[in-house]
């Protein structure tokens, strides 16, 4: 479980990006953060894996403050998918996916097996794609690799920052479907940022609507639809 307790983030220029945010994200839940540009979604996400620090309040994961975790321990347990495709262009697909498993010193055969499993999960034939470079894949295929790379070492938590926004509508719809199916199988805690309500309603088990750094509504898709 991820727990925000009166979390505030003020940037050094004085901008209050997140203001006294309190919420609990349950284990295995797919939480969507939604709201207009600049409302603090990305800031909220980045505080969870300590990509940025918080100004006031506390964030805890499984009852332990994130500031008390060793930073590597924290980040290894949290997969992160960016808005932009962020594969290393000089590395093969297999090498890109293997980064965290390698850091964790997984055995070679285990890494290879995992890479095959993950590529299959998102419909990329392992033998055809593992040795290719990202440039030899379409945008949608690369983003698929970006998604499974975040899952590679079996993190408990996956953070996703508008992972599909750079894709064409058809790839986006396909990947949304894949992600929804994936979540049913892996049951990870996912925190997903978007500004697209359709996407939020399609994917979220709960939706947190933010505005100007504050949470204005938190509920299931059904609750959000009934109480707009
Ligand atoms: P969102 O993801 O909802 O678009 P952000 O979390 O990126 O919102 O930004 C929230 C607010 O904080 C915005 O006003 C943004 O301009 C500001 N902000 C974000 N990052 C920084 C930064 N590094 N320094 C100063 N202000 C920032
Ligand atoms: P998003 O698309 O999630 O709203 P942006 O593309 O606006 O994020 O911001 C990209 C990066 O720039 C983020 O890391 C954010 O923290 C930073 N950033 C956003 N607004 C500002 C700002 N006003 N000053 C400095 N950095 C900012």
From TrEMBL:
EC number from the UniProt entry: 7.6.2.9
Cellular compartment(s): Cell inner membrane
Main location: membrane
Molecular function GO labels: ATP binding
Reaction(s) the record says it catalyses: a quaternary ammonium(out) + ATP + H2O = a quaternary ammonium(in) + ADP + phosphate + H(+)
Domain ABC transporter intervals: 2-228
Keywords (A to Z) from UniProt: ATP-binding, CBS domain, Cell inner membrane, Cell membrane, Membrane, Nucleotide-binding, Repeat, Transport
Signal peptide boundaries: none
Membrane topology: Peripheral membrane protein
Enzyme class, UniProt record, top EC level: translocase
Entry's family note: Belongs to the ABC transporter superfamily.
Subunit structure: The complex is probably composed of two ATP-binding proteins, two transmembrane proteins and a solute-binding protein.
Protein name: Quaternary amine transport ATP-binding protein
Annotated source species: Heyndrickxia acidicola
Upper taxonomic lineage: Bacteria, Bacillati, Bacillota, Bacilli, Bacillales
Part of the full-length chain shown: 1 to 228 of 321
């Amino acid at each position: 479980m991820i727990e925000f307790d009166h979390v505030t983030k003020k940037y050094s220029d004085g901008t209050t990006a997140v203001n006294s945010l309190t919420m609990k994200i349950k284990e295995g839940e797919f939480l969507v953060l939604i709201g207009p540009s600049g409302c603090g979604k990305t800031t909220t996400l980045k505080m969870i894996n300590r990509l940025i620090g918080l100004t006031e309040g506390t964030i805890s994961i499984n009852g332990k403050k994130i500031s008390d975790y060793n930073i590597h321990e924290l980040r290894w347990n949290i997969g992160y998918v960016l808005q932009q495709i962020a594969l290393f262009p000089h590395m093969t697909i297999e090498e890109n996916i293997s980064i965290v498993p390698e850091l964790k010193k997984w055995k070679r055969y285990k890494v290879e097996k995992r890479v095959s499993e993950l590529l299959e999960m998102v419909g990329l034939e392992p033998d055809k794609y593992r040795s290719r470079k990202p440039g030899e894949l379409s945008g949608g295929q690369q983003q698929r690799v970006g998604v499974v790379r975040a899952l590679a070492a079996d993190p408990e938590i996956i953070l996703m920052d508008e992972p599909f926004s750079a894709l064409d509508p058809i790839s986006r719809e396909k990947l949304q479907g894949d992600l929804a199916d994936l979540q049913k199988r892996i049951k990870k805690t996912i925190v997903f940022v978007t500004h697209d309500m359709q996407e939020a309603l399609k994917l979220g088990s709960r939706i947190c609507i933010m505005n100007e750094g504050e949470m204005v509504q938190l509920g299931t898709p059904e609750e959000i639809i009934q109480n707009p």
